Amino acid sequence: MHLINCLLLLLAGLLALSHGQLTFGHDGDSCTSSSQQQILEADEGSPSLKITPANADFAFRFYYLIASETPGKNIFFSPLSISAAYTMLSLGAGSYSRTQILEGLGFNLTELSESDIHRGFQHLLHTLNLPCHRLEARMGSALFLSHSLKFLEKFLNDTRTFYEAKLFDTNFYDSLGTMKLINYHVKKETQGKIVNLVGELNRDVMMVLVNYIYFKGRWEKPFSSSRTITRNFYVDEHTTVRVPMMLQDQEYHWYLRDQHLPCSVLRMDYKGNATAFFILPNQGKMREIEEVLTPEMLMRWNNLLQKRIFYKKLKLYFPKFSISGSYVLDQILPRLGFTDLFSQRADLSGISKQQKLQLPTVKFPQGHLARG
After folding, report:
1. Going by DSSP bridges, is the β-strand pair 228-234/240-248 parallel, antiparallel, or unpaired?
2. 58, 108 Cβ separation under 8 angstroms
3. pTM for the whole structure
């Protein structure tokens, strides 16, 4: 299979705890019949739909913050991976810290119970991990636990029940061995696409929580490897680079030029139950589009691109590219409502009563997307 027919979306989130130190789509026949039914149920009022608004809200708030602080830079992250990791962490937080985590992620606890939130993620993970012949998607979590600390059974049972977390008894005094264990597990679960997730660990770490997402899909209308030419790619209004462009000029795609905003929107489907949207700002209009980018705007574009009038033959040039990113979350999340989680005031007593645990520097270090 040629890479030009695939999307690789590979993300992993990393949380470390130490003691005493601050540091939906088309072509359903590509899946099994049971998978089809469960995906259909997810579209008709499942537990995962209850958490959708909060997940979307967090995704846009995180994006706006990163975009405002790094203008002109590529942004690449998985909001779902961050939300799942911290919601899972909330299972071990005391009442005040638990509320702060869940509200920071956008959940309204007067409208949605904690049980509903965790059951929503449980159903979402189950749906994402359903077998599908022509679409590979997997999301998972793992807890690497110090053998010198007694962890509460309720926390361990809840992480396994709701988040399908795999548990590993770990000797953190053997830092090199522990890093090899973590990196091997993530590499194996992501088909060898995420390597060297952890580069260093302190010996006083008591627990590492890892969350990863792996997605690999083939276009419904694949590009031909023989039809790649070099053309201009406009990085911004001042920068142009020459890059290899894949070409299609005989295919129909869902495409519209927005009559009210300076942008175009392209919808491309994968074989299997997935769709990608590409928002293409007019030259020099990136900031203007970012200001109106909301869940409601995405829904508007999605609804428009169901109409046959927007299904048209295009001369489509698509760049080959690769993006990776890393974010230090303890510098970002406090500005999104996690005010005490990375301080000594954090209460993580639901993980262990034996010692007071604190969050050190937290990275979301391994994001990689390759297209082409």
Report:
1. antiparallel
2. no
3. 0.84
